[in-house]
Amino acid sequence: xxxxxxxxxxxxxxxxxxxxxxxxxxxxxxxxxxxxxxxxxxxxxxxxxxxxxxxxxxxxxxxxxxxxxxxxxxxxxxxxxxxxxxxxxxxxxxxxxxxxxxxxxxxxxxxxxxxxxxxxxxxxxxxxxxxxxxxxxxxxxxxxxxxxxxxxxxxxxxxxxxxxxxxxxxxxxxxxxxxxxxxxxxxxxxxxxxxxxxxxxxxxxxxxxxxxxxxxxxxxxxxxxxxxxxxxxxxxxxxxxxxxxxxxxxxxxxxxxxxxxxxxxxxxxxxxxxxxxxxxxxxxxxxxxxxxxxxxxxxxxxxxxxxxx
Length: 309
Known about the structure:
- Helix content is 52%, strand content 12%.
- It has helices at residues 12-23, 35-44, 52-57, 69-77, 82-85, 100-111, 126-130, 142-155, 167-195, 200-208, 215-226, 239-255, 261-275, 286-293; strands at 4-8, 27-31, 47-48, 61-64, 91-94, 116-119, 122-123, 135-139, 158-163.
- The strands form two sheets. A six-stranded parallel β-sheet has the order 3-2-1-4-5-6, sandwiched between helices. The chain has a three-stranded mixed β-sheet with strand order 7-8-9, with helices on both faces.
- Strand 1, helix 1 and strand 2 form a beta-alpha-beta unit.
- The chain is elongated and about 65 Å long.
- It starts with a strand and ends in a 16-residue tail after the last helix.
């Protein structure tokens, strides 16, 4: 492959992006402050970058996958940030779920170096990222999208150019809004199933081919049915991440004077779960809040659905 690719942020998502790009035949250089994550990339066939600036110098396209606006600012504008190593023509794909204004600030900084930053969030959880079964929504100039299309195909299943800068994040927030609603609705359904004596194995099996199924239920539902949220091998994300995303969505709705009462109703259980110390567990843990409200908490996996008398 002619394009050299860099990845800054080698967590669950970024690490998966980098590994898949190596498999696709790209020369990949990655950086993360956690040495073990860089070592994992090297073991997979990639190269270790000394800093974000070093990654930028050695790449034609850089992918960023980060957790907060402050980290994005540091990765772009820090002493050893991307801007310090950027050259004219460099394209940065910013895949994080962050505010458009934060991405725009990074874009302006890189533009001064002749580099381009594209807003390019992805839809899909860690398991989907590991297998490349994710969708990317790229916003910015179409010509830049065409330039990086081969790279996008190396770590995603579907690639969309969705419009001007920022539209990618708007679409990402709309999708995540529905994820929150679907998750809360399924938690309610599980609780009602248990309260009425329905076997959860039967419920899960019948639901698979029904009109009530959804992509959210397919990848998060098994955890909710099994009451298993902490195992890093199965969890899809952290509850803290969903709350961070939901706060962005709420601000997005407010700024557009759009009523989102169903979405807002879905958020109370997430805050309640956070208050109970479940922040590092899968967002499906909101099921426990509904079960507590119904007075049928599960002490063991798939405990008999009996209401206290």
